[in-house]
Amino acid sequence: MLAYLFSRFPVVSQTFCDTEMLALEAAGHSLVIGSLNPPPNSFRHERLAQLKAEVIYPPPGAVLDAPVHHPPDDPVWQDMAALATKHEAKYGASYKSHLRARNAWHFAREFKKRGVSHIHIHFANRATHTALFLKKAGFTFSFTAHAQDFMVDLANDDLLREMIREATFTAAVSDYSRALLINICPDAADRIHRVYNGIDPAQFPKATPGWTKLPLNTQSPGPPPSSINSPPSTLRLISIGRLIDFKGFPVLLDAIATLRDNHIPVDLQIIGEGPQRPALEAQIDRLQLQANVRLRGILSQEEIKKELAHAHAFTLACLTDAKGATDILPTVILEAMACGLPVVSTTLAGVPEMVLHGETGLLAPPDDAPQLAAHLTTLARDPALRGRLGTAGLQRVQEIFALDQTAGHLASLFPQYSLKGDDPAREWPTVLALLDSPAAEEPALLQEIAFLTTHRAVTVLASRPTHPVPGLEFLPDATVLEAAWRSHPALAARAESLRTEAGPVDSELYYLTARRAVHLATQIPMRHWQKIHALRASTVLLAWLLHRLTSLPASATIEASHQESRTILTKLLPAFTRGSNSDPKLKSRFPDLLKLQAPAPVKHILGLKLQSQPVPVTDPAPVWAAWLKSGE
Fold it and tell me: Which of 306, 462, 554, 597 has the fewest C-beta atoms under 10 angstroms from its C-beta?
């Protein structure tokens, strides 16, 4: 199986990664995704719902740090730790080599559980550095380098050379990037391949960029704020990108001011968000462009497609910023070309590989607002040219940048064993056992966890404990839970509708639990769970909600010393098919199979507190063996 590893996933602006993975899945390949950090926000493009791959997020910091504070007696960890020490001495502390080793140790175990053999990474920075450590665990890896990632973010040619030499291959997103990489690591030239980021032109609506020629002396005061509602005599422009320096938005605004001053009606919609927004807002005010320019913020892919379909041209004023960062092959240009739009951009980096000047668009030198304005004016006054450029751009996308070609090229470079997919004989865990934060002083629970985590049929999933417990998996952070809630409105609505049935549950607790249940419900197709079990009374509500959302059978273990409301438990437990109830005060039809009695009372002797011997714990193995064999 093939894994993709990201520093963060998903990221709104990295739609090319989503497109690539969706294409590989459509070709029949099974994927797993690893995200070294939680995603930056809960926004999700609609098409991510089509992605079948499971996303593995990091556990709590205490779990990740465990091998650092208590090094395991394992040769793989020892090799990772030795490489971290070597890298810190060679590359410096700022590259956080011990953090890379720590992350690699965790994800190596998770990837192995899922049958991963090869790992692919986008961007030559933190995740690819981590892959060097994952290689110590027996994985092979490859990576796609863009340009800013290794030229600015990594900023270390020696480390880049090590990445390239250790990888099975390196993909470069443009001929421009490939030339840079070969110049840095010439001995690996035969393993550095240009692989364009592709798109599926059929997924994009076709615009009609031509309309009646503008009168030269039009005195329009400016268009309304929405490009879709602009009058036909207004040049409707779209620009898309993060609001950061190298996208060149200040230069574009100066060009728009020139068009306005020359009495050319123009409406520019800038889609994206970022740290440059306050400065852009101030520039719009200073140039009095409020009637001509609108900052739209983040829009979903489907919303962006609608805007492109109603535009006359796309523009992006790429430049090189003060740190040397630049756009290399902006995917948004390809998306605009797929809609049949002419493109006005700059001659920077890989842009001329997409936009052929005079054939599919018009290119200006970077940071040249007057020339950019001249090109936009040309398009405003020549609708026939807009149509010709747009048609040629669409044809170029179909011939060179079509997804079936680019993804097929990438797939041909992967080791073939990594693309075989799941082993049909593989035994997937069938039981999802739910747990809150286990405490070290709960010997009965720890004994039960120790048994369950060695059983291939059980996944034990906990919230975020403060100390590591071997074998546990963990719920992701709140950003991921919120994203699932927003992205699956039907499940969320169903979870909300169940609130009255759950009894007098605290609102905050209910909605947190509901978000966890919705997230887990979305994971079932990837994880193949067939049963749900609440390991303790504190997760009965979660198990009940998940049962109601998925119809999977549920069971529960109720310990004698729980702190949950018996009224609520009595209301929820009738939906459960099996259980072990050690609480004599709880009205339940389940027998006390696991005998999880309350601890023996504390004795007071001469003013000192003495704890009696703990109550013996029933061996959970026979009980669980019977439950696992049952068809319920």
Answer: 306
